[in-house]
Every structure is written in structure tokens, then in C-alpha cells.
Fold this protein.
Amino acid sequence: MRKYEYKCILILGLSEKTSRILTEYGKQGWELTCVWWAWYYLRREITE
């Protein structure tokens, strides 16, 4: 069974700032799962 850790981040700013921040999280293995207003919900698989 796969296990995940979750993170919720608030990004206030224009699209260039948002893109840069999400790209950094993507490089760390985070996957974007949902966006609500300026809240971004991310998850990544836990490897044991």
C-alpha cells in the first residue's frame, strides 16, 4: 500500500512567482493535487 505525506501552501503573487515556487516543489518530488483560491495542496509518496 502506498503512503503519502501532504502539504498545503499559500502562494500570493503573480503567475511567474507561483510557477517558480511550484517548480521548486516539483523538483523535491511534490505533486500538485488541488488548488483552491491561493492555496495549493501537494503530496509526495513516502519511501521506506
